[in-house]
Design goal:
102 residues; mainly alpha; MazG-related_GP37; Pyrophosphatase; MazG-like_dom
Length: 102
């Protein structure tokens, strides 16, 4: 079964018991979870630099965990992930265009 990013976020929010009005504690938990998983991604990259070998399966697993917390935070802030991705792409394109015109 293929899920859209918005469907995944809805599933993740149900799984994590997140709604659009989370407590400060719940929001903190999600933010710290995202930071922790991002740290695990960085750890895989560090080991690549140190050992010249990448545990791609491990990296992919951690990237999935990053997406889980990110999707939950999208729901917690009332954002549709697909809309956030569109806005992010537009921002990056704008930065590239501005850099190219300098």
């Amino acid at each position: 079964m293929v899920m859209t990013i918005d469907e995944y976020a809805a599933w993740a929010a149900i799984t994590a018991k997140v709604d659009e009005h989370p407590s400060n504690e719940r929001l903190s938990y999600l933010g710290l979870g995202l930071a922790g998983e991002a740290g695990e991604v960085a750890e895989h990259i560090k080991k690549l630099l140190r050992d010249d070998w990448l545990d791609k399966a491990g990296l992919v697993e951690e990237l999935g965990d990053v997406i889980y917390y990110w999707a939950c935070l999208c729901t917690a802030t009332g954002q549709q992930p697909s809309e956030l991705l569109k806005a992010s792409a537009a921002k990056i394109k704008r930065r590239i265009s501005e850099a190219a015109s300098r």
